[in-house]
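Annex B, item 7. Sequence and structure tokens for protein A, then protein B.
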Amino acid sequence: MSDLTSPERPAPGRFTAPGSTLGPFRFPAFRAIWIANLFSNVGSMVQTVGAAWLMTDLTDSHRLIALVQASTTLPLLLFGVIAGAIADNFDRRRVMLVAQFGMLAASGLLAFVTFEKLVNPYILLALTLTVGIGTALNSPAWQASVRAQVGREDLPQAISLNTIAFNLARSVGPALGGLLISLWDISLAFAVNALSYILLIVVLLRWRPQVAPPVRGPMFVSIMAGLRFCLRSRPVRKVLLRGASIGFGLCAYQALLPAVVRDQLGGGEIGFGILLGMFGISSIMSALIVGKAMRKLGTEKVIGLGTLAFVAAEITLAFSHSMAMALCAAVLGGIGWVLALTTLNVAMQVRSPEEILGRCLAFYQAITFGSMALGAWAWGAVADWQSLPLSLLTAAGWLFVSLVLLRVFVPMPQRGEGVHP
């Protein structure tokens, strides 16, 4: 096999002109990594379905069920900043490889203990947390490496296409996971995820990005340099605060969906997979237009529309006692997820210097996804204390009130404000 190199010699294509929606696909490295990452994401979604549904079999606690979602995002809060410094101080490709091998091992172990009936709620949380740590290590390096895969004019489109890959997986993976669980055993879902890392590992071994070697420095000094930039940059501070607010509110949907399917809808793993699949399908449709929407409407309006869509999704889910209503909530949630989070991601990327890009993205992810983890625990606790509907309605209220206040007091950066050349 020949090596994949950086985007100096893109293959021309009729539908892949620079700046077009499919423009990044003219770069061989981006194509290969995108396809491999798609398969890896499908495996991750299969495991997500398996872990969430397994917890509903192991316990009646809404808090423990919600903590399955939190265990995948909490490591981004706890270790994301360190992972960002690692991504800027070491070869990003090698960092991703270490993370992929670690997640393969953890998923394989989870498949084994589940097959042998050795799993309990705390072993399940510990191993999903371990996979989450791998994700936390991988994510800053992976996101920062997008610039090494495409030209700068294609960066927003590349981010949108990566979002589409994730949501294609979100469409296919849950249904596949539900099918595998119903046909055989939950351990098969975890085994499929372990195998899904192999293709991405092969592609990363072949990839040879043509980038300057990282300038290493002491880890603490590197972390503080990234932190100082984020705190001193007013546009970046705005993005971080908006990410924290949105993350805390929208996580209630994902965290409580398994309990809603079991308790309100009386459904099983197939119904759960169908709802996650519909969420992914609507996310894909939104990802196809989010770039144009940002150019025409601006980031503030796009984030506002995404937040309102999620408010509607959580309200609809709270009152759902039929699959039809739950499917409507899934469509609204998928639209809101992409419009809000993709816009925030692009806003952060274009305002971060290349030499500290990994750290800046790590701070963004630590705050946004850390807020999701804290929110998942909080909304699960409210559901145990009161009820699922009240928890979802409270989360929707949080999103709406924070949107109104932050639009006034912490508006998103204007076009061109703080953009780093």
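Protein B:
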Amino acid sequence: MTTTTASSPSPTEIPHKDRTRALWGSAIGSTIEWYDYFLYGTMSGLVFGPLFFPSNDPIVSQLLALASFALAFLIRPIGGIIFSHIGDRIGRKRTLVMTLTLMGLTTVAIGCVPSYATIGVAAPILLTLLRLLQGVALGGEWGGGLLLAVEYAPKGKRGFYGAVPQIGALLGLALGNFAVVLAGWVFPGDLFLSIGWRIPFIASIALLLLGLWIRHKVDETPSFRAVQAQGKQERVPIAATLRHHWREVLIATGAKFIETSTFFIFATFSITYAVSLGYERSFVLNMVLIGSLLGVSGMLFYGRLSDAIGRKKVFMGGTIAVILFILPYLWLFNSGNPLLLAIGIIVSFFLVWPTYGSLIGTLLAESFTPEVRYTGASLGYQLGAAIVGGPAPLIATALLAAFGGNYVPVGMFVIACGVVSLIAVAFAKERYNQDLDDLPDTQARAEEAQSATTPVSSIRTEGVEA
């Protein structure tokens, strides 16, 4: 168990202002990162197809644009491994400054890439390379932002604290949609295709500077300070994680399936799908904006609820709910009624997704010991995102095309993801009422490591004395 030292205060000794500063740093940094990341997803559904992947078939252009969106998810585990190694070795704070800087500069660069009409095939290549760098940055950002909140949290409020960086996904999505709507209003019609879409990307430089200023003021987390004070950093955190925590990594990967697949169905695929059904782009974006903002309160509510009754009950209840909801949700889109479309979008963001979206981070953080927590949580989270998260809009679009516009296969894809997550979370350990760093196997592993390093001569001496 973690020993309290002068440089690692116990949870009850952490000043409230330090907790609040860490929570704000986590939330704002997460919002900025997700704004940058989701902005690409929104533009993939609206403009990147014709501008960077032109084709005689609009569906092919759309699929290529969504494929570039999905590719970043494949590289996110690599970013998670790289930056989580740094985070478990030298600290969460410095790692978060690196990831935020990389994401911000890459996003600004995306806004400056010339279109296919200007530089030909170099345009989609440059765009895709920058998207991959976004994936590397977010792969490292998520785990650090989560731990900044959870490792500062009081014992009975980890669910609530862990929900705060997760609301960054909704706030980033809302901010991105607001920026797109505003750019479309200032640069209507063809102006949006030529220059308007670039403004939200380039403007993120201001968010980058704000985020760096805030994170500079946040101290290192208590859990890492304790690990550092005791010299318990793992030399190769990924190796220790796979050796001692491979089961937890598998559980985390499976739990991520439903959270990530439904988010990108609701947030990215739905925009493209609704526009293809004849709804006005601005109306759909506004509904996603409203739903995202309402979802923030839902996230905080379910985070608090998990502190009262446990993570698994809330998470699994929400997973069952989305399994039952997904086909009616898609039917509402096909109704042709804007009011029903609005109801579907708002319910998905306000009542359904937050049940598990708010808890995925805390559930994963509670599964790993502090010396590999950054690595373990990031690896499971990013693997799940790579398998079904990024590809979800691409898979859904391909299923629609393959089945003549029938939305039922899309629903079955989501249901399959839900079943995987239910099975995975069923095997997770419930730790909502326990100390974060007091995992049952922590002391056993410490004793095992100590015995492994005890000199043979001392063992023989002890035997003679006995």
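Comment on protein B: The first helix runs from residue 16 to 46.
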